[in-house]
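re: ur question from earlier - yeah i can do the single chain one, its not a big deal. heres the input i used so u can compare w yours
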Amino acid sequence: MKIAPSILASDFSRLADELKDIEKGGADYVHLDVMDGRFVPNLTFGVPVIQSLRPCTKLPFDVHLMTYHPEAYLEGLEAAGAHMVSFHVEAVPHLDRMIHNIKDRGIKAGIALNPGTPLASIEQVLSLLDFVLIMSVNPGFGGQKFIPYTLDKIAALSAMIKEKGLSLSIEVDGGVNRDNAPLLKKAGAQILVAGSSVFGKEDRAQAIRDLKV
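and the output i got, formated as tokens:
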């Protein structure tokens, strides 16, 4: 299991130190939630902040775009050395074009699915993706409770991937903790995004180990 701590739950006044802390603690990625205040009701940070964080850690950047017009961010994210970028089905009219726009920049492409967004919405482009981000809370805010029915969605996606003979990864974001991590793994998840369950703990290394089931 790979762990991607979300800096949405970190201390924004000391982001550089927070990144160093999770890197030493064994994190596999840094998860960066970009919100525009329109696609979701919250507003976080943009490309300049991400670019400023790049020298602070060697961990790959996993960027989740909760924005309309996600294509507008790609040039800056490429310059910032983003490793993975996901966007929402509802944010763009042409999924195929957006996926290729990401991959042509040498970035792994993913689609994020809200709890109520069906798997059928991405079935035709599944073979083009490097990963799918299953939201197990409604996006826009940290610290929410895990939505149990998303376990069935993860299992269904895992079965769909196997049936089609594909090798893309399943990432899960929202309410992830040490109690549901084993269930997520059993359902087929390979990357867990963790906010308060990592940054809310004094011992970040132990918190990350608790999730690596």
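The chain has a mean pLDDT of 96. not sure if urs matches, ping me
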